[in-house]
Amino acid sequence: MFNFLALLGWSPGDDREIFTRDELVAAFTLEGISGGNAVFNQEKLDWFNQQHLMRVAPDELARRLRPSFERAGIWSDDYLDDRHAWFYAVLELLKPRARRLGDFAAQGRFFFTDTLEYDAASAGKHLRSAGMDGHLVALDNAFAALDTFDPASIEASLRGVADSRGVKAASLIHAVRVAVTGKAVSPGLFDVLSLLGRLRVHTRLAAAERLLLTSAS
Q1: In a domain, 13, yes or no
Q2: What is the mean pLDDT of residues 16-45?
Q3: Is pLDDT of 12 > 90?
Q4: Are 178 and 122 spatial neighbours (Cβ–Cβ below 8 Å)?
Q5: What is the three-class DSSP state of 148?
Q6: Cα separation of 112 and 105, whole Å?
Q7: Can you give the pLDDT at residue 132?
């Protein structure tokens, strides 16, 4: 907010927009004050907030996020202890899409709970396409055979299954995203799957398979 307000009526004389408070104090000159009318732009303010969130250190970001995670019922003290490396990696993945602190809990909830709710429209569009139940079973089996469950291996496996079953990789990617996150939009799928871990991915693919079988009967 401080950064945003400073630039409503002042310019540093170049294209730079992101400043810490100390940097603004050091750069400020009276000559940079403009005489034009200031315009409040909510989208620009959100952009500033997102840029500053990207620069917050993981431990500090975790501290700031704890209240919103507690309100959402998804906080665990392990996130600052035994699972801190995993938690920080998840936050780094969520950062580019987060405009405000509350976005981390809202957009990344599927990482922190095993209770998954499917967006009905997304499930109908991507999960319930013809033959998807069989594709998911084949992919689940392929994932189980991987030596390493990392993004590169996961991507190669998924694309191999898509080729072998004559389905577009994009269709399988969209279906898997809904199956493991409940939504049609998320950070990069292969990073998401790797951070969720093989067991949780298996559990969610199996749940999606059961959902498809139930809806078909």
Answers
A1: yes
A2: 82
A3: no
A4: yes
A5: coil
A6: 9
A7: 93
34: left (phi over 0), alpha (psi -120 to 50) or beta: beta
pLDDT recorded at residue 216: 58
CATH code, domain with 94: 1.10.8
> Domain of 19?
2-46
Question: Residue 51 domain-assigned?
Answer: no
With tokens 């730079």, the residue in question is 16
* DSSP string for residues in 85-130: HHHHHHHHHHGGG-SSTHHHHHHHHHHH-S-----HHHIIIIISST
Structure-token match 């199996």, residue found? 206
CA distance 154 to 127: 19
Asked whether 197 and 149 are in contact (CB, 8 A), the reply is: yes
- Total-model pTM: 0.85
Let me know if residue 52 belongs to a domain: no
CB distance 119 to 183 below 8 Å: yes
Question: Of all residues in the chain, what percent carry a pLDDT higher than 70?
Answer: 99
Nearest to 103 by CA among 73, 79, 70, 69: 69
